[in-house]
Amino acid sequence: VCAALIIIILANRLVVERQFNRRVQRLTRAVNAIAQGELDHPISVTGRDELGEMARALVVFRRNAEELRRSNIELEKFAYVAAHDLRSPLRAVQELSTWVIEDEDNRLSAESRAYLSMSQQRIARLNRLLKDLLDYARAGQNQPEPEAVDLGRLVRELSLGADPEHRFEIAFEGPQEAVWFQLTPLQQILGN
Known about the structure:
192 residues, two-stranded antiparallel sheet, 5 helices, 2 strands
């Protein structure tokens, strides 16, 4: 009876070890590898039980992660190309309006000069937005260095863009000296 009991315990341990523990360890290794970005890591667990179902779900998760990675790469490329390609014609429009303002022979009214000046401010804002889009497209590649930022000036500039008709009074109360920040994320936070 003792020998039979020992054989049953050993057989049970062998079955549990082989059928459960080893499979759980392989599945855990696969989950950890995929979570760390190794999307080509093999998933060698199979079966019709719960562990097999988890392995099949992990295969679907991996496929979705691969698709998301591919989609993000395409989105970053598109954002970079779009922002880069839009900057050239925008620069040309800005230069043209500068030439019109600076032309000594033109007879622009004060109102027309004000409109051209306002258009230049909006072109400058659009240039900053395109720069931000380029920075976003490169976000995973390198981090921008912190720079000295005049918060009062930044708030005034952003308020002009948010409320060009001056319907609201936007005030800044804070440090008057420059502070060190990464400009693009700060602009996005304050703009929102």
